[in-house]
Every structure is written in structure tokens, then in C-alpha cells.
Amino acid sequence: MELQLVTLEQAKKLKELGFDWKCKEKQIIEEMPACKLCGAIHIPIAHIIKHPTIALALKWFRDVKGMRINVDSYIDDKYGGNFWYKDNPSEILLENYDTYEQAESALLDALIEYVEEQNEK
Predict the structure, then answer these.
(1) 3-state secondary structure of 62
(2) Cα Rg of the chain (Å, integer)
(3) Burial class (CB in 10 A: 0-12, 13-18, 19+), 79
């Protein structure tokens, strides 16, 4: 089973936040016109973004941004399903996602939003 890749929107935002780790997958941000001289398509490096797995993007937040985060499953009578939490700042989202991967993706969105807000201050 392959690990889930971040969405294109998440990849764009990760690039803006400084994500620069090696990734197997890459994505072209926008279509480039063919060269009028040779007919080839030359893609400037600025138009290519890295397309990591969600797991790698979350590891980057832990290792580079120093955020203590996790996705877990919890089962009892009151709460059940997959949820995420981050410890700095402390926040727990006990939302029932159908899959662990959905919870990971939601955590990644929340982290991107949080760091974007901090960068604006």
C-alpha cells in the first residue's frame, strides 16, 4: 500500500512555508507553453513543487518546526474514530474521521493554517 500524497493545494502552501525536503514525486504548478524555437516545453524550476506524502509533510512539521503532533485512534462510548492533536499550542480535535489518512490530512491543513497565521504576525 502506498502512502497518501498531499493535495496540490497543500503542496503549494508547504512550498511557501519553506518545505524543501527531497521527494520522489514532483508536480508542475501551471502549464508552460512550448518553446517557439525548438517546440520543447522548458519548465523553470520556480514552476515545479515537491509533492510529499502526508506522513513526510507531518514529519517536517515535527522536525523542522518543532511541533508536537500526532494522529491517533480512540474508541469508547463517548468518542470514537480517528482524531489528531498538536501540543504547541495545545489543541485536540476529537472529530470522527472515517480513516486515519483523513485525520492526517486534516491535521496537515490545520498546521499549514496555524503557521501561515503565525507568519503574518
Answers:
(1) helix
(2) 17
(3) exposed
The answer to whether 66 and 89 have CB atoms below 8 angstroms apart is: no
The alpha helices in 1-121, defined as continuous H runs, are 8-17, 54-63, 100-120
3-state secondary structure of 5: strand
Judge whether residue 95 has pLDDT over 70: no
Burial of 60 (0-12, 13-18, 19+ CB in 10 A): buried
Q: All 3 cell numbers of residue 106? A: 486534516
Per-residue model confidence (pLDDT) at position 98: 76
**pTM for this entry:** 0.73
